[in-house]
Amino acid sequence: MVKVAIVGCNGKMGGFVAQAVENNSGCQTLFGVDAFGTNKYEFPVYTSFEGVSEKPDVIIDFSNPAALDGMLGFALANSVPCVICTTGYSTEQIEKIKKASGQIAVFYSGNMSLGINLLIELAKQAAKVLGNSFDIEIVEKHHNLKVDAPSGTALMIADAVSDTLEQEPQYVYDRHAYRKKRSKNEIGIHSVRGGTIVGEHEVIFAGHDEVVTISHSAQSKEVFAEGAVNAAAFLASQKAGMYDMGNLLADKFA
C-alpha cells in the first residue's frame, strides 16, 4: 500500500486527487497539507509541513508555487519522493526541483494526462517531418480562474518541438507589439482564458497551401488526478532522479 500526502488537498485538483487515491486499491492518503487548513476529509490536514510527524511514501503536489520550499524541505529531510504537478514556477524554482532530484525521486510534469503526452509525441514527429518549412503555432485554452499563462503544458509542447528542430526557435507570446512579418524561427504561443474550459491545446503546422493541426481536449480534471496517482505509485519505488510521463508510459508498456 502506497501512503500518499496531498499538497493543496483543499483545492479543486486536490479534491480530485483525494478521490482518485480513494478509488485506487493500491494507495491511501496519509495526510494533506493546505495553507487554508480546512479539514473536510477523514485524513488529517496540516497548514504546513512544520507540524507533520507522519512519513508518507510519496507526495503529490497540486498546489501553488509558494508551497515549493516547504514541501521540498520536508521531502529532502525525510527522503520522500515527490510528484510535482503545479505549474507557474520561476526559473529559480525549477532549478531547485532539479537540484532536489539529486537526492530524491522527482516526477515533474506540467500535464498528467496520457492523451496530452501522446499529443506531444505526435507533435515531435510532425516537427521532424515538416521541419522548418512549416510555421508552428500553439494555442492553449483554460478556465477564467487559471493564473499562469501560457500554460505549463503549452511550454512542454513548445520545448518538445524545439528539441526536434535544427535551428533553436524563438518563443513569441504576443505579437501586438511587433510590426514585422513572422520570422521562420518562431513558435507562437497563445493563451485563451474563459468560462470553465478544463484544458484545450492545439499545435498548428501551417505550410504553403496546407495546414496540419494536432489537438487535445480534456473534458474533466479527473484525468489529471488519475495520472498523478499513477505517477505516485510508480515513483514510490524509484531511485533519486528526474522522471516524467515518458518514464511512466515506458514502465506501463514495457
Describe the structure.
Helix content is 33%, strand content 25%. It has 254 residues and is an alpha/beta fold. Helix 4 (114-130) runs parallel beside helix 5 (152-162). The longest helix is centred in the middle third of the chain and has 17 residues, at 114-130.
Brief write-up:
The chain has 254 residues and is α/β, with parallel strands linked by helices. The chain contains seven helices and twelve strands. The two termini are 22 Å apart.
Topology:
Blueprint: E1 2-7, H1 12-23, E2 27-33, E3 45-46, E4 58-61, H2 68-78, E5 82-84, H3 91-100, E6 105-108, H4 114-130, E7 135-142, H5 152-162, E8 170-172, E9 186-193, E10 199-206, E11 211-218, H6 222-235, E12 241-243, H7 245-252
Parallel strand pairs: 1-2, 1-4, 2-3, 4-5, 5-6, 6-12, 7-9, 8-9
Antiparallel strand pairs: 7-10, 10-11
Helix pairs in contact: 1-6, 4-5
Percentage beta strand:
25-35%
Structural class: alpha/beta
Q: Rg from C-alpha positions?
A: 19 Å
Can you give the helix content as a percent range?
25-40%
Largest sheet: 7 strands, parallel
Mean pLDDT: 92
**Uncertain runs:** none
Tally of separate helices: 7
Brief descriptors of the model:
254 residues; alpha/beta; seven-stranded parallel sheet; five-stranded mixed sheet; 7 helices; 33% helix; elongated
